[in-house]
Amino acid sequence: MSKKKAIVFGVLFIALAVGFLFLPVREWFTALQVYVDRLGPLGPVVVAAAYVLLTVLLIPGSALTIGAGTVFGLWTGLAVVVVGANLGALGSFLLARTLLRDKVAEWAKANPRFDALDRAIAKEGFKMVLLSRLSPAFPFTLLNYLLGLTKVSVGSYVLANLIGMLPGTFLYVYIGATLSSGLSEGAGLFKQILLGVGLLATIGVVILVTRAARRAIAEVEASTVVEEPQGAAVVTT
Questions:
Q1: When comparing pLDDT for 167 and 17, which is higher?
Q2: Which letter does DSSP use for residue 184 in this model?
Q3: CA 173, CA 96: separation in Å to the nearest integer?
Q4: Least confident of 120-124, 189-193, 213-217
Q5: Do residues 197 and 94 make contact, with C-beta atoms less than 8 angstroms apart?
Q6: Disulfide-capable partner of 68 in 77, 153, 156, 214 (CB 3.0 to 4.6 Å)?
Q7: Does residue 135 have a pLDDT over 60?
């Protein structure tokens, strides 16, 4: 994790901690839980549909991911987010290949790293899509559209996207589930400590996976060779 991102994460963590101390978080959680409970079986469907819409509109869904963990718990919340995020990602991908191709091509020109990623995907489609999902080099919502310009097949994209988003998604949903359990009336000190330890362990795993993915992407990009018309080979970085 870079120094800048570590600072941002630290500031966010402090802001959340201050909010829990001075804001009626328990009451907000209860109100949200009541609203979702009123929806009955439609609750998960509504949240998943909202995630699809946010993804296609390029709106980050981190808050909704945490909220899903808070309302539905770890495993149901994870399922809801995975379904919603992947459907939204597929929608963005297909839009980039059809109706919005020219617009997305303009976005790609403004992103200096896209050319290297595009060439790498042409050689190793599934692997590079998977690594790009594991690494935060590209924002999730924007990457959905940019990948639509590449030659990766729809099947490889869907599978790599599904696997690659799991570590980060699990972390955010776990945060929400931890908040839910920690804010419940019956949560004792020992349970809160266990939840905190589990959260720290999850963060550690995600950081290690992210670093490994970033290194792997850098290695692939550095070894990508582009043949010029004259036949000369140029190694891109």
A1: 167
A2: S
A3: 28
A4: 189-193
A5: no
A6: 77
A7: yes
Q: Residue ranges per domain, the chain?
A: 3-235
Q: Tokens 């609750």 label which residue?
A: 43
Sorting pLDDT into bands at 50, 70 and 90, what band is 85? very high
**Residues sharing a CB contact under 8 Å with residue 15, sequence separation 6 or more, in sequence order:** none
Per-residue CA distances from 80 to 49, 50, 154, 184, 219 (Å):
9, 10, 22, 22, 34
Q: In the predicted model, is pLDDT for residue 227 greater than 50?
A: no
Q: Rounded to the nearest 5 degrees, what angle is found at the Cα of 1, between the Cα atoms of 137 and 48?
A: 60
**CA angle (166 as vertex; 161, 172 as ends), nearest 5:** 125
The vertex-103 CA angle with 134 and 149, nearest 5°, equals 45
Cα dihedral 44, 47, 50, 51, rounded to 10, equals: -90
Q: For the segment 121-134, what is each residue's pLDDT rounded down to a tens digit? A: 888 888 888 888 88
- 74 and 177 in contact (C-beta within 8 Å)? yes
Cβ contacts of 122 within 8 Å, gap of 6 or more: 150, 151
The Cβ of residue 33 has, within 10 Å, a number of other Cβ atoms equal to 15
What's phi and psi for 34, nearest 5 deg? -65, -40
CA 184 to chain CA centroid, nearest Å: 27
Segment (H or E) for 202: helix 189-223
Report pLDDT for 145: 95
Contact 25, 183 (CB under 8 A): yes
